[in-house]
Amino acid sequence: MRLVEEVTVQVPAGVTPLPNAGIPMQWAIVAVFEQEPGDQNKTFEQYTAFVSSSNDILFQSPIAAFELKTDKHRITTQVNGMPVGLVGKHHIKCYIREKGKTVWTERGSYPIQIKWASSLIAIPH
């Protein structure tokens, strides 16, 4: 297993990718929850979001419901593609709430840096 900390994309000279640009890349987001006192017999909901440095949601996983039947619970979200249209330090953020509640609480954040590297060859128009 490798941790994604930085993604550098080769971009032709003079080209600026569209804000919604993405590259093919298979990766996964793993969220681990530890049972706390009072968590027994409760159902929780969780989702993860890739949030840009300007706080825009670039993508969001489906909501997953779970119960903490053991001391730890892990949810793995498979992702096909990486948003690369905005450079900067973005974050994978994990949100949780008790099922039936309306307020989501951010429970974790992990940074991923997106960079563009300009190639020396310009694309003719």
Rg for CA atoms: 18 Å
How much β-strand is present in the residues?
over 45%
In CATH terms, what is the architecture?
A: Sandwich
User: What's the mean pLDDT score?
Assistant: 92
Structure annotation, total helices: 0
Provide the structure class.
mainly beta
Report on the biggest sheet: 6 strands, mixed
CATH superfamily: Immunoglobulins
Write the layout of secondary structure elements.
Elements: E1 6-13, E2 22-34, E3 43-51, E4 57-60, E5 64-67, E6 72-83, E7 88-98, E8 105-122
Parallel strand pairs: 1-8
Antiparallel strand pairs: 2-6, 3-4, 3-5, 3-7, 7-8
Short description:
This protein has 125 residues and is mainly β.
Describe the structure.
0% of the residues lie in helices and 63% in strands. The mean pLDDT is 92. It has a single domain, classed as Immunoglobulin-like. It is built from no helices and eight strands. The termini are far apart. The chain is elongated and about 60 Å long.
Task: Output the keywords.
single chain, 125 residues, mainly beta, Immunoglobulin-like, 6-stranded mixed beta sheet, 0% helix, elongated
